[in-house]
Structure formats: C-alpha cells, structure tokens
Amino acid sequence: MSRIGVFVCHCGSNIAGTIDVEQLAQAAREFPHVVHTDDYKYICSDTGQQSIKDAIAEHKLDRIVIASCSPRMHELTFRKMLESTDVNPYMLEVANIREQCSWVHKDKDVGTKKAIDLVKMAAAKVDHDAPLFTTAIPINKRALVIGGGIAGMQAALDIADAGYPVTLVEKEPSLGGKMVMLDKTFPTLDCSACICTPKMADVGSHPLITIKTLSEVEQITGYVGNFEVTIREKAKYVDYDSCTGCGLCETKCPSKVTSEFNQGLGLRKAIYTPFAQAVPNKPTIDAAHCRKLLEGKCGVCEKVCAVNAIRFDDVDTTSTETYGAIILAFGYQLINWQELYGEYGGGLYQDVIHGLQFERLLNASGPTEGHIQRPSDGAEPKTLAIIKCVGSRDPHKGRSYCSRACCMYAAKHAHQYLDKVDGAKCFIFYMDVRCAGKGYDEFYMNTQHDGATYLRGRVSKIYEENGKLVCLGEDTLSGSQVRVDADMVVLETAMVPADDANRIGSMLGVTRDKDLWLSEAHPKLRPVETNSGGIYLAGTCQGPKDIPDTVAQASAAAMKVAILFNKDELESNAMIAQSNSSLCNSCGACEAICPYQAITLEEITRRENSVMVTRKVSKVNPSLCQGCGACTVACRPGAMDLKGFSDEQIMREVDALCQW
Amino acid sequence: MLDLSSISDENYERIATITSEAAVDLHDCYQCGKCSAGCPMAHEMDLLPRQVLRALQLGQYEQVLNAKTPWICATCMVCSARCPQEINIHGLMLAVRHAAKQQGLRPVAEPDIFDDIFISNVRLFGKSNETILAGRYNLASRHLMQDMSNVPRMAARKMVGPKVHTVKNRKAVRELVDRVLKRGEEQ
C-alpha cells in the first residue's frame, strides 16, 4: 500500500490568489492512499523543501505530489530534493496548478475545482509510479566539426583551446568557407581575408585539430558521447606529406577551368589551390578536368614537381572514428536566382550578378584585381543598380524569411562602389532597411551620404536597351514609377540551406524547419543545442545570420561541447521508452517514427507456445532515447511504453478524473 | 515614369544651391514623415514636406520649384523642431521660395505679395501699419473684401483707423531695410 503526500504551494498570491489552497489540501486528503497533505507559501524555497523532507520522514511517505507551477519550472528542483531522502526521485508528480490553472482563471471557485481535478489526476498517477534509475554513459572526448567556414573554424579552435581534440571536416579543398570570399566586412570594413586567414592558419597549426579537406561525412551512428562517424576523404592526387606547396604545377597546368572560388568570374587550373592563402596551402587535382586523368595524356604537373608529390593513382579513402560530440557548421548557399527570376533575365544578361560575385570583383586578389569591371566587356560601370530581397521575403518565388545580412552588405557594396568609381551613380532598390546591429544603422546612413540613392520598391523587370540594363521599379516614397538605366546590376540574393542540410540533418535526426534550416532545441533558451543530445549548431546552417552572430554562436556551441567533455560520464535519461518483446509484433512502426534513431529491430530466438521461434523485436537504445513518446503512440500491439508516463498511468489519470 | 538615369547634373547643382542656402544635407532625410505629420498647413499643400525632400533627393528640381508647398509653409518651424535628423526643413522651404522667385515662379501669389507689401510698409513708415498693410494687400491680391467684416469691431477697439503710425527715425529704418535688401540681391 503506497503512502502519498500532497503538498500545495501558494506561490505567493500567484496560486493562492485564484485558488483556495486550504480547500485544495483538504480535498486531497480524501484521495486514495493519501496519508498527508500540507500547504506552504513557497515550496521551492529552502524551508519549503525542508518541510517536505520532514513530512516524508514523519509520515513515512513513499511518493509525493506537489501542486505548484509547471514541471518545466521546478520538477528538477524537487527531484534533486528527493535525492537526499529515501524516496526515489521519480516517485514524484507535479500538478501544474499555476500556468494552466490559477493564471488563466479569474473565478476562485472554478479555479479551485479545476485544481482539485488536476491534483486528483496526479495522485492517481503517482500511485503507479515506479522507481527509475539512470545509467552512466561514457564520453569519448573528441569533437567532430562539420564545415570549415568561420563558424566551424571558431568552434574547432575554441574546443581545441579547451584541451580537447577536434576533427574538422570540410568538403572544399580549403578552409575558409564563404567569409574568405568576401572583400570587406561590415560595418568596420575590415578586410575579410585579413581577419579570416589568420584563423585558418591557427586552425591549420593547432596541435589538437585534425583537418580533413575535400572530405564528406558519409555515415553517423551512435549517440551522445559515442558517435561512430564515417568520413570519406576524396582523392587529392597530391601527396600532402611531400608537397611543399611551391605552386609550380599550377603555373604549368594547361587546363583552364571556371573558378568556383571566384564565383565563376575567373579561371583556375585543373591542378589548383583555390586561393593564395588557402589552408592547407597545397594543390589538388580536379579529376573532372585533368587531361591526364581523363585522357591519359599530359602529366605536366608530375614532370615539373620537384618532390614527386603527384599521385595519379590516388583514390578516395574512408575512415571510421568515434566522437563524443558533433558541431554542425556547414553554412548556407545562395538561392539559385536564375531559375526563379525570369523577370531579371534569369541569367541571360552577363552583367546581372549576385552579391558574392560582386565581392570577388571588389577584391584585390579577385579576377579583376579589385577593379570594378563588368563581366560582359570589362568596362567600368558608371551606374550601378543594387536590388535587395532577391529570393528573400518573397513567398511566391523565393523564401518568406529575411536573410538578415543583405541590407548591410548592400550598403557596403554601394559604399565600396562609390568609393572606387569616380562620378558613379548607385541606386539601391529595397523594401525595408533592416540594419539592427552595433554600428549598422550608422553605416547605412553613411552610405546615403556617400551618394547612394535608396529607392523603396522592388524591381519588376530588368531588360536590355541600347547597351543598358533598364530596371523598372517604383519609388513608393514619392509614389512614382522609376526607371534606372544601369551598366551593371547586383542582386542581393537570399541565403538558403546548404545541400548538406537535408542529408546530414536526417542522418542525425536533427529536425529542420519549414525552410529546411536545422532547428535549435529552443529558440530562446537553447539556441545552439539540437533536440538530439551531443549535437550542436553553429552559424548559418541554423538560419541566416551575419559574421558576428555566427562567431558568437560557434563559441557558444564550443562551450557546450567543453561542458559535456568536462564530465567523465553522462547520466542517461531515466524516462525512456521500453519495449515488451512478448507483445511486439515486429511491425517496425516504432523504428520508423523514432526521430532519434534510438530503436532497432533485433532478432531474438525464444520459446513461444512450446515452439522455438526466431523473429525480430524492437529494442530501445537507452542512450539515444530522449523520451519523446512517439513510439508508444505508433505501437499498435501496445508493446512500447514510456517509463514514468506508462499507458497504465495515463489510464489511471483518466479514471480518476471521470470516476473519483 | 521617372527616369532616374537621365536627370541632368545641372538639376543636382541647382538643388545643391538651394540646400546649401538652407544648410541642409538631403541625405540626412530618411523619410520618416514626422515633419508632415505635425505640419499645421499640410491640408493646403500639394506636396507634403516629406515629399518635397524626397523630390529633391531624386533630383526633381522643376517639380519642387513649381510646388505650392514652400509658399503655403507658415515657417512655424514645428517640422524643424521635431525632425529626428535635425534637418532645417522650414529653412529649406524658404530657400526653395528664393530659388523660385529668381526664376520668376510664384505658384501661390499671396504670400509673396504680402511679403513685398510688408517690407515696403516697414521701409516707408518705419513699422508695419495694419490699416495700410491690409488695404494694400487686399488691392494687390484682389481679395478686396477679405476680412472687411472685421473692420467695425477692430475700429471700435482702435485697432484700425485713419491715423498713420510711424516711428521717430524713419530714415534709419529705411536705410536698414535697404541695406538688407541689397545684401539679399548680392547673394
């Protein structure tokens, strides 16, 4: 026979103001197996907790109900309190009579009646609570960071500086990501490479960081503290141990290919380092364009290489290693505007370019050595139109969200353009100017003083006439249709999730929002965690953001990893699903619905009805299960149950509500 | 359709003359509309004060010079007092008037007629003479009967009457007015 104690909290006047707490405590005394009730002003306080402990000892209580605020608020507080008593911390039910009762009711009678019902259900449920225990999960203190942009580099550096080894996986031949492509960064106009490349060098030389470039994560299994990760390192055709990075091969290579780093505006060779400050600063061979690899002819690089570092027989290698935590930092890509915006030429006009291409035109080590020349004929554009929100805030053709950084880089583009070209005119078409950030609005206002004309309205159409790109728009501020005959047009296009978001997101069971950005566990209070333990987010894979926000989030994610690694063992979640193998009918619905890949079908052999049978039954991995309960709902034979929220307990609650 | 690429440099230069007279930087204006929101004369204007600034930003010199707004402006200075960017908006309206007058433009005649008669009165009598001012203005503006219904009441209180008020040293005031007018012409 269980001995239940019910404790009612006043929460000052938060609860006592709308609920008759004494009447509630009295009513609870009548529920089955309740041997003690009490009410107190603030149960969560030290003295409140002590009074519960005293009551447990005095009345030999073996389980308790606390009627107070939401369990999200103080369930953990009370569980911790129970750890110092003889009562198992999970023999506790919290009846939420504040958020969903006293706060939403005005009538004291109604509120009290509802509170009694809530406590009734909690008392019925606690009667069927069973002691639960956590287990210790060992932690492998090595971190994996996916993505070598500024987010990934910052996270890797911070974790490594905290003393833990890190592997940084980057799919391109060099670290740096998008940031290193930028010319300058707003609002301070620091040279992007000057602040990014030292970080790349730091990552490259850090003894605790292993860099895997031209690599992709192929498979991830396991759980927090123990992820098994398979990484494919693609063939580079160059032996990095002997290569000195002299660059002779690159100068001699006869194949020219459009440069990805310069956003298609320049050329590179088939054997190449993507840019001068690349890390690692050693070339790779682009197999799709190498004459030797394609046709078996040429091989000039091999001939000129003084240290015989060229390996035409190089192949992809895969390796599997164990990591304790993973940071996802694979960034964003720009929306494919050519496909979506026929009204802007859809890629027909060479001189309609996107913002990242303009960055390369501005950059001293870019294809034009920093001279602003339009792609079609190399002429210096005297009139520039900048169009913002191309793909952003456009639910019809693009995405409904704001890409956050474009307002500022549009202002920066205008500033840099007006600075570099004498007598230039610059028109910026915008819907709103959103420059929230330290020094941002001032920067935008300065751009106007530089001479940029802001026109409030989207451009409806771009067409070519007499060698000019005619932009038709409206200036909604003056209420007039406007026309700008531009020499070049820069589209500030939307950020969209990288292709990897889907693949890696589903591999890890990290949820994605409607736009396919990876979802954080809580938008305010857990912004760098995911719903899967041990997996953290950094940078734009979570949503559009600028560099300062990206770096801040990366350091925050690194701190979360350091906190995890600072422990030797991890306490598992006690309230997890368990499968009753004798009821399981092997349908696999639980395996399919589990968002954490915590359920597997396992083959067992046993005697059933005097016959030995071999069949598959579901099995829950206690380290992976987060206790969400999706499987218990999906399970048709009722084999799956959630500890602490069993079907039996929920039915008892319903019974209590209807019958008591 | 406003063709922004074909606006002449001359237009921008003329606008720069106006703005420099008023010590206004047009780039300061971010079109919040607070000036127009509080303007007591806005209901009479063809362009709101904000729209005048916008038109100047976009090089619409002719439009602004032909606008009634600068002439309707009572220069009460509420706009300038409340402008978050501290733009001298009422000063800009006066500068537009000057520029228009130089071009022989007077989209609304009355304020200009009034100004001229007022100054001429001060020059002649050393002070503004209400009876003469009202009479001359009504004649010149052809609003012959304007405010005539007020005459009996004002006469009873000796606010208007046959007596011509002057100051002791009319010559000194005349010289002062001439000096100011001459300086204005020189500018």
Question: How are the SSEs ordered, and which strands pair?
Answer:
The complex is a heterodimer of chains A (660) and B (187).
Chain A: E1 4-9, H1 13-16, H2 21-28, E2 34-40, H3 46-59, E3 63-68, H4 71-83, E4 92-96, H5 98-102, H6 108-126, E5 136-138, E6 143-146, H7 150-161, E7 166-169, E8 184-185, E9 190-191, H8 192-205, E10 209-212, E11 215-223, E12 226-233, H9 248-252, E13 256-258, E14 267-269, E15 271-272, E16 284-285, H10 291-295, H11 300-304, E17 317-323, E18 325-328, E19 332-334, H12 337-340, E20 352-354, H13 355-362, E21 383-390, H14 406-420, E22 425-430, H15 440-450, E23 453-456, E24 461-465, E25 468-475, E26 480-486, E27 488-493, E28 495-497, H16 500-508, E29 535-537, H17 547-565, E30 569-571, E31 577-579, H18 589-593, E32 599-608, E33 611-620, H19 630-634, E34 640-642, H20 647-659
Parallel strand pairs in A: 1-2, 1-3, 3-4, 6-7, 6-18, 7-10, 18-29, 20-27, 21-22, 21-27, 22-23
Antiparallel strand pairs in A: 5-30, 8-9, 11-12, 12-17, 13-14, 15-16, 19-28, 24-25, 25-26, 31-34, 32-33
Chain B: E1 2-3, H1 9-22, H2 34-38, H3 49-57, H4 61-65, H5 69-72, H6 78-82, H7 89-102, H8 109-125, H9 130-141, H10 151-156, H11 170-186
Helix pairs in contact in B: 1-7, 8-9, 8-11
